[in-house]
Amino acid sequence: MLQTPMADHAAPAVALAVRDLAVQFRSEQGVVRALDGVSFDLHAGRTLGIVGESGCGKSVTARSILRLIDHPGIITGGRMVLDPSTPREIDLASLDPESRQMREVRGGRIGLIFQEPMTALSVHYTVGNQLIEAVRQHHSVSVAEARNRATELLRDVGIPRPETRIDAYPFELSGGLRQRVGIAMALAGDPDIVIADEPTTALDVTTQAQILSLLRGLQEAKNISLMLITHDMGVIAEMADEVTVMYLGRVVEVAPVRQLFAAPRHPYTRALLHAVPSILARPRQRLSTIGGAVPHPGSRPFGCSFHPRCAERVGAVCMERIPDPVPPGQAGASCFRTEVPA
Ligand SMILES: Nc1ncnc2c1ncn2[C@@H]1O[C@H](COP(=O)(O)OP(=O)(O)OP(=O)(O)O)[C@@H](O)[C@H]1O
Ligand SMILES: [Mg+2]
């Protein structure tokens, strides 16, 4: 059985343990290691924030868990264990993506909320028809029962007049309402884990706050284990219990949210935090951004991948060796700086 060390005795069970996950995209141009040994724990009933700049591998992580990586991506190593250390434990990496078991996990155990709700919705069918089909994929109920359940789901996600709105087409709804339907679709199979990949990035600020508040309410009411992917430290502060910071396909820091904000250990985390607009900032003060861009994973820098952009390099070691990964199940940073005695 997979060992999942707990931070303390009060820590809840681990719902999903990802260990040493490696994903490559192979093409004629070469091999791109999009994920290179990613490990983290998603605790039951908690919100795990996954944060990092564009291209760090957040979506590839989400899609790997659901076994939905786009061709030519392949999982080349690692495990993704549901219900670890229980008799029900199952390694999703070992399943055939097309198998019945994996289709049941998708939607039935793990729901996925996309950045753009139209990824999950069709323009050709009413909201109700799509929700009814999603309900019936995971529950053997009549169409009438599924319709009642679909109406309930729309009410759960705060859609006004769900009895009428159920017959609307997605294009008749505003962006905010469409994302609410997207959330209802993710919940249709009663999953206990939900992965939300940048669920509010496409929305205006006010709608974003409403959707985050809805997600938090649903997560608490249904005791969902939520994996929330974002590039926005503000969203992390508001939503997450624990945080995994990713850089170029690797985990660079893991910490409880308060610890991450109070005492970030990795220079990349510190740089991300400095780039957050502060409510204390003067109105026209410029936002600081991290110098340089995330390199392409196909041309990963030697040594610590972050070293060319790092303002806190400790020496040649940063350019020559890869720092040890954060031990699974523990808080820490993958950085020579934290390994060097003060
Ligand atoms: N379909 C694909 N074909 C080839 N490479 C891909 C593909 N999808 C992802 N990658 C590689 O994986 C890397 C990580 O992509 P991913 O979509 O996970 O980033 P992300 O962290 O979700 O970024 P964003 O914040 O922009 O959504 C990309 O930089 C790219 O090199
Ligand atoms: Mg993404």
UniProtKB/TrEMBL annotation:
It is a peripheral membrane protein. It is found in: Cell inner membrane. The keyword Nucleotide-binding applies. One of its GO terms (molecular function) is ATP binding. It comes from the Bacteria. Residues 18-273 form the ABC transporter domain. Transmembrane segments: none annotated. The keyword Transferase does not apply. Keywords: ATP-binding, Cell inner membrane, Cell membrane, Membrane, Nucleotide-binding, Translocase, Transport. NCBIfam families: oligo_HPY. Belongs to the ABC transporter superfamily. This is ABC transporter ATP-binding protein. It comes from Teichococcus vastitatis. The lineage of its organism: Bacteria, Pseudomonadati, Pseudomonadota, Alphaproteobacteria, Acetobacterales.
